[in-house]
Amino acid sequence: MSASLDALAGMDAAALERRWRQVLGSAPPPGLPPAQRARVIAYRLQALAYGDLDRDTARALDRLARAREQAGQGGDDTPIRVSVLVPDRRGHTPGVTLSREWAGVMHTVQVLEQGYAWNGAIYDSLSRVAQLITGTKWNGPRFFGLRAKGTGGGEIGAGRVEA
Predict the structure, then answer these.
(1) What CA–CA distance (Å, rounded) separates 120 from 126?
(2) 160 — phi, psi (to 5°)?
(3) What is the mean pLDDT of the chain?
(4) Where are the alpha helices (DSSP H) in the chain?
(5) 115: which residues sit within 8 A by CB, 6+ positions away?
(6) How many C-beta neighbours within 10 Å does residue 91 have?
(7) What is the arrangement of strands in the sheet containing 160-162, beginning at the earlier edge strand?
(8) What is the CA radius of gyration of the chain?
(9) Residues 6+ apart with CB under 8 A from 160
(10) C-alpha dihedral over 133, 137, 139, 144, to 10 degrees?
(11) Can you tell me the mean pLDDT for 82-110?
(12) Mean pLDDT lowest for which of 26-30, 76-80, 129-133?
């Protein structure tokens, strides 16, 4: 990855346009400066290699962009203040093991790239796993101690995270 990103720094406008077409599958927008083209290509290469933004972050950035557009239409230079709730990602990193004792039984969940492995099956949602364990609807991150009731973060000690 490092070599690919370093190569972008030495490319002229024509080479950047060719690389844009290879990576993004279309022509770059007209008038986009070469330095900005290099940044977009670099971002896309990294997103392909390491994964793109999660849904919540993408939505927060979209809200920020819309707020900037609306403020720009007014013609003033007032700073834009947008509250962005950063989700607590502890325990949602692939490879992490979550544990919780329920009804005298220790339940262990392995976090995967695309879901959660528990009891020999893979589930899309940690909340679904919690529901199957308890027989009732639960917020999965809260059940496994990754989030306190009514907050976006903070462990409550009910679960254990092992990296």
Answers:
(1) 15
(2) -135, 135
(3) 81
(4) 2-9, 13-24, 34-50, 55-74, 126-134, 140-143
(5) 122, 123, 124, 125
(6) 23
(7) 121-123, 115-118, 105-112, 97-102, 160-162
(8) 22
(9) 98, 99, 100, 145
(10) -20
(11) 76
(12) 76-80
Residue 155 has pLDDT above 50, yes or no: no
Q: In sequence order, what are the beta bridge partners of 128? A: none
The residue type at 60: A
Instruction: Please state, in angstroms and rounded to a whole number, the distance separating the CA atoms of residues 35 and 8.
Output: 9
Do the beta carbons of residue 113 and residue 105 sit within 8 Å?
Answer: no
Check whether 12 has a pLDDT greater than 90. yes
- Considering all CA atoms of the chain, what is the largest pairwise distance in Å, rounded to the nearest integer? 65
* C-alpha–C-alpha distance, residues 131 and 113, integer Å: 21
**How is residue 87 written in tokens?**
């989700």
The mean pLDDT of 139-160, rounded to a whole number, is: 63
Given a cut of 80, whether residue 157 has pLDDT beyond it is no
Report the C-alpha gap between 15 and 152 in whole angstroms: 45
Bridge-partner residues for 121, per DSSP?
118
pTM of the model: 0.43
Residue 81 binned pLDDT confidence (cut-offs 50, 70, 90):
low
Residue 148 DSSP symbol: -
